[in-house]
Amino acid sequence: AKLVRVPGTWIFKKILKFLWKMKISAVPPEAAPYMTGEYLVNTDRLQKFLGPDYENVISFTVAEALSDCFAGNSPDAAMRTSAR
Q1: Is 69 helix (H, G, I), strand (E, B) or coil?
Q2: Do 58 and 64 contact (CB within 8 A), yes or no?
Q3: How many CB atoms within 10 Å of residue 64?
Q4: What distance, in Å, lies between the first and last C-alpha atoms of the chain?
Q5: Which residues contact 31 (CB under 8 A, 6 or more apart)?
Q6: Residues 25, 31, 36, 39: what is their CA dihedral angle, to the nearest 10 degrees?
Q7: Position 5 confidence tier, pLDDT thresholds 50, 70, 90
Q8: Confidence tier at 4 by pLDDT (50, 70, 90)
Q9: Which pLDDT tens digit goes with each residue over 52-78?
Q10: What pLDDT is attached to residue 22?
Q11: Cα Rg, the chain, nearest whole Å
Q12: Element housing 80 (H / E)
């Protein structure tokens, strides 16, 4: 996947809407805020609910998960995933 920077969120939303309408992109325009902003989630309730299983369920950071998405199907990526 190639990262392309666009000048500002307004034009990004317009491009995303166009790509969706033309059936070029599988990303709906409603996803734009999640792609352009920073969202913090408090996981205290989830930690309490899962108890000791929390570490087994939440095994990747956001940065690791995003990096893995762009790693492809290389043997190194498969090794990282199976090591967890």
Answers
A1: helix
A2: no
A3: 12
A4: 24
A5: 16
A6: -150
A7: confident
A8: confident
A9: 999 888 888 778 887 887 776 655 545
A10: 95
A11: 17
A12: helix 75-83
- pTM for the full predicted model: 0.42
Token digits for 46?
């989830």
For residue 49 the two structure tokens come to 């609910």
Q: Could you give the angle at the alpha carbon of 14 between the alpha carbons of 13 and 19, nearest 5°?
A: 95
Q: How far is CA 25 from the centre of its chain?
A: 16
Mean pLDDT of 34-56: 85
In the block, tokens 């095994």 appear at 59
Integer Cα distance of 32 and 11 in angstroms? 11
Spatial contact of 25 and 16, defined as CB atoms under 8 Å apart? yes
